[in-house]
UniProtKB/TrEMBL annotation:
<dbReference type="InterPro" id="IPR036388">
    <property type="entry name" value="WH-like_DNA-bd_sf"/>
</dbReference>
<feature type="domain" description="HTH lysR-type">
    <location>
        <begin position="2"/>
        <end position="59"/>
    </location>
</feature>
<dbReference type="InterPro" id="IPR036390">
    <property type="entry name" value="WH_DNA-bd_sf"/>
</dbReference>
<dbReference type="InterPro" id="IPR005119">
    <property type="entry name" value="LysR_subst-bd"/>
</dbReference>
<dbReference type="GO" id="GO:0003700">
    <property type="term" value="F:DNA-binding transcription factor activity"/>
</dbReference>
<dbReference type="Pfam" id="PF03466">
    <property type="entry name" value="LysR_substrate"/>
</dbReference>
<keyword id="KW-0804">Transcription</keyword>
<keyword id="KW-0805">Transcription regulation</keyword>
<protein>
    <submittedName>
        <fullName>Transcriptional regulator</fullName>
    </submittedName>
</protein>
<dbReference type="InterPro" id="IPR050176">
    <property type="entry name" value="LTTR"/>
</dbReference>
<dbReference type="GO" id="GO:0003677">
    <property type="term" value="F:DNA binding"/>
</dbReference>
<dbReference type="Pfam" id="PF00126">
    <property type="entry name" value="HTH_1"/>
</dbReference>
<keyword id="KW-0238">DNA-binding</keyword>
<dbReference type="InterPro" id="IPR000847">
    <property type="entry name" value="LysR_HTH_N"/>
</dbReference>
<comment type="similarity">
    <text>Belongs to the LysR transcriptional regulatory family.</text>
</comment>
Length: 293
């Protein structure tokens, strides 16, 4: 119905006190200014200026139009400034594996918020396979996920590995010190979901050569894993950093023989370099800086 140029012309008439003064100030012909405003009034079906023998003044509708238009002009100028001056702004759809929500995520978002106050984050917590698909479908911009489940064709920045341990509630189970694979496999085990590499690694560690395969339960929720292990449902394969962050869980690490030790979890910052290289590189920078402290 109207453009920024229309608003600028109306503002010039108000600012300089009439069509003739606006013509002198802007270099536009007075007739062109009058014609443009008249056509705008006709298109919108409103009266912007009330005319009398002493000149023109804004109508009540015209004043409201100018007030609302000032907001639009301010938003336009802000957007142009952000785009031309390299300011990061807008919404970032960030996918995070739950392990990272208890470790790197809080400090990461604090750092990014301080550096780029115009950014807004929509955070999704899911399994790495689900987030990898969301990254391909462009429903997430950047993902912190297990590296071996990252889709092809994406940019990946490794972050320091997360160490894993076997944990138990001493009130429910007593194991030898150190425990061997047979000792662990004899008990129910709570681990990551069966679609993930940590779950497969546990099965590969405990199952070979056994008539009875180990019983490994999968959970997508680390909080659920902690509660199940605490209540004696089984022993758990849990990141050290998670148990340290939840001291009230009262879990103890099981001392195991070297061949029963769990491999580290390898995570990475992943993004499509064609769509999200700028924000992907910035999140990667922040994650590496935080991890090095």
């Amino acid at each position: 119905m109207f453009g920024f140029r229309d608003i600028e012309i109306i503002r010039s008439v108000v600012r300089y006190g009439g069509f003739r003064a606006a013509s002198d100030a802007t270099g536009l012909a007075q007739s062109a200014i009058s014609r443009r405003i008249r056509h705008l009034e006709d298109r919108m079906g409103i009266t912007i200026f009330e005319r009398d023998g002493r000149g023109v003044r804004l109508s009540a509708t015209g004043r409201r139009l100018c007030d609302e238009a000032e907001v639009l002009i301010a938003q336009r100028d802000r957007i142009l400034g952000e785009l031309t001056q390299g300011v990061m702004a807008g919404v970032v759809r960030l996918g995070v594996a739950e392990t990272m929500t208890h470790t790197i995520l809080p400090r990461l978002l604090t750092d990014l918020g301080q550096r780029h106050p115009m950014l807004r984050f929509e955070i999704s917590v899911d399994t790495s396979d689900q987030m990898g698909q969301a990254l391909k479908d462009d429903t997430l911009d950047v993902v912190i996920m297990l590296r071996d489940q990252a889709p092809r064709g994406i940019a990946l920045t490794p972050v320091p590995p997360v160490t894993m341990g076997w944990f138990v509630s001493p009130a429910h189970f007593t194991l030898p010190d150190p425990a061997d694979i047979d000792d662990l496999a004899a008990l129910p085990i709570v681990s990551f979901p069966k679609t993930t590499s940590p779950h497969r690694q546990v099965l590969e560690l405990l199952t070979p050569g056994r008539r009875q395969p180990a019983t490994v339960h999968g959970s997508a929720s680390i909080a659920t894993m902690l509660h199940l292990v605490r209540q004696g449902f089984g022993i758990g394969t849990i990141p050290h950093s998670i148990v340290e962050a939840w001291p009230h869980s009262m879990l103890h690490e099981i001392n195991v023989r070297p061949k029963a030790r769990l491999p580290d979890l390898e995570f990475g910052i992943c993004y499509d370099p064609e769509r999200n290289e700028e924000i992907g590189r910035e999140i990667s920078r922040a994650a590496l800086e935080i991890s090095s402290v």
